[in-house]
Write a structure and sequence with these properties.
Elements (H helix, E strand, L loop, with lengths): L1 E6 L5 H10 L3 E4 H8 L5 H10 L12 H8 L3 H28 L5 E4 L14 E6 L2 H12 L3 H9 L4 H6 L3 E4 L4 H22 L8
Parallel strand pairs: 1-3, 1-4, 2-3, 4-5
Pfam family, one: CoaE
Function: Catalyzes the phosphorylation of the 3'-hydroxyl group of dephosphocoenzyme A to form coenzyme A.
Protein name: Dephospho-CoA kinase
């Protein structure tokens, strides 16, 4: 069973993901995989250099993610070209990691990714968890985390799908607008609920009863 985990930028998705891991859930992190597939020597990096030019590399031959991000951030066509290079390889590694977890006897895993709703991938999963916070909290966290100005932080947030659209398709919502302990308690409760439901019914998806 694969359960999706997503949220808006700086909404606290990584905090929730780490707590699920501490509870023993295998978390397949799309960001980690994305970094792995573009390491030196990987075919994806060769394709990226061929598409975007060698100036997106650091001196040591690694990918300069900042330079590449600046290139594609406000250009949907370039983002699509980058996605065509990386997304199939990310999906392949996700499938490999989830298969390995199931072979170990784990009944469910979490796939943690920012674009699960945007790319429609959530439809292939048993259920979807969305991590949410208020727009004000999201803005302040992003500014503090990345050292951005108000305008730059708002531009980053506005470039993504509105959180409200993700909440419309959520099966579970984690409110990350309060204390860390409050968030962790919600994750603990959700873990117990999902684990029990999967073991009893074979599905994490809530019922209407």
């Amino acid at each position: 069973m694969i359960i999706g985990l997503t949220g808006g930028i700086a909404s606290g998705k990584s905090t929730v993901s780490r707590h699920f891991e501490s509870l023993g859930v295998t978390v397949i992190d799309a960001d980690r995989i994305a970094r792995k597939v573009v390491e030196p020597g990987q075919p994806a990096l060769e394709d990226i250099v061929e598409t975007f030019g060698p100036d997106i590399l650091n001196e040591d031959g690694t990918l300069n993610r900042t330079a590449l991000g600046a290139r594609v951030f406000q250009d949907p066509d370039l983002r699509a070209r980058l996605g065509a290079i990386t997304h199939p390889r990310i999906a392949q590694e996700m499938a490999r990691q989830s298969a390995a977890a199931f072979e170990r006897g784990e009944p469910w895993v979490i796939y943690d990714a920012a674009l699960i709703v945007e790319n429609g991938l959530f439809k292939a999963f048993d259920s979807l968890i969305v991590v949410a916070c208020s727009p004000e909290t999201q803005l302040q966290r992003l500014m503090a985390r990345d050292g951005l100005s108000v305008d730059d932080a708002r531009a980053r947030i506005d470039s993504q799908m509105p959180l409200g659209e993700k909440l419309k398709v959520a099966d579970f919502v984690i409110d990350n607008d309060q204390s860390l302990d409050h968030t962790r308690r919600q994750v603990d409760e959700l873990f117990n609920s999902i684990d029990a439901r999967i073991r009893q019914t074979g599905s994490a998806r809530p019922t209407d009863d």
